[in-house]
């Protein structure tokens, strides 16, 4: 405020009267006009500075959240930022998985948890067979040569690949 008399146009705000050119954002000093202002503790701010300083920030991009948002995982997200943290794909029907506080699609959730089938690369949500340090759907643990389904404990391994007893004997005998 300048304490000079106001002869023409004036702005009345925050219980005071101002010359229009003196009613500015306290941070960037931009004159506040028809776009309006935000107030905190008796101080005026332009929208950009107010939301940057005091507004909620997006958990994805850390930019201010000023309009529509998604509330998830203890934070607010711009709709375009609430995507799988690995492949950046939007979630279908709002269905997502969480790992270490981050949103993931089903495939990347199971990948992080080590529960993707080594045979088909799809999530394992039911029964599982562990062989050669990997997990498989029971129907996807197959002989590398003849492709027949292997039963637990009835296969041989060569170069980290499973073989039925007959194919192993024929190939590596």
From TrEMBL:
LIM zinc-binding domain sequence ranges: 1-55, 56-115, 116-173
Cellular compartments annotated: Cell junction, Focal adhesion; Cytoplasm
Pfam families registered for this protein in UniProt: LIM (PF00412)
Transmembrane portions of the chain: none
Entry GO MF terms: metal ion binding
Keywords: Cell junction, Cytoplasm, LIM domain, Metal-binding, Repeat, Zinc
One GO CC term, this protein: cytoplasm
SUPFAM superfamilies recorded: Glucocorticoid receptor-like (DNA-binding domain)
Protein name: Transforming growth factor beta-1-induced transcript 1 isoform X2
Classification lineage: Eukaryota, Metazoa, Chordata, Craniata, Vertebrata
């Amino acid at each position: 405020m300048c304490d000079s008399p106001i002869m023409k146009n004036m702005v009345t705000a925050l219980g005071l009267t101002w010359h229009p050119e003196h009613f500015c954002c306290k941070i960037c000093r931009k004159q506040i006009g028809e776009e309006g202002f935000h107030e905190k503790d008796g101080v005026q701010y332009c929208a950009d500075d107010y939301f940057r300083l005091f507004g909620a920030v997006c958990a994805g991009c850390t930019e201010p959240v000023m309009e529509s948002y998604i509330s998830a995982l203890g934070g607010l997200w711009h709709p375009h930022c609430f995507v799988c943290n690995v492949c950046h794909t939007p979630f279908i029907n709002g269905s997502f998985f969480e790992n270490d506080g981050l949103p993931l699609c089903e495939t990347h959730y199971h990948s992080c948890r080590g529960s993707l089938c080594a045979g088909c690369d799809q999530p394992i949500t039911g029964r599982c067979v562990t062989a050669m340090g990997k997990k498989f759907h029971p129907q996807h643990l197959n002989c590398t040569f003849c492709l027949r389904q292997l039963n637990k404990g009835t296969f041989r391994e060569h170069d980290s690949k499973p073989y039925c007893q007959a194919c192993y004997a024929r190939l590596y005998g």
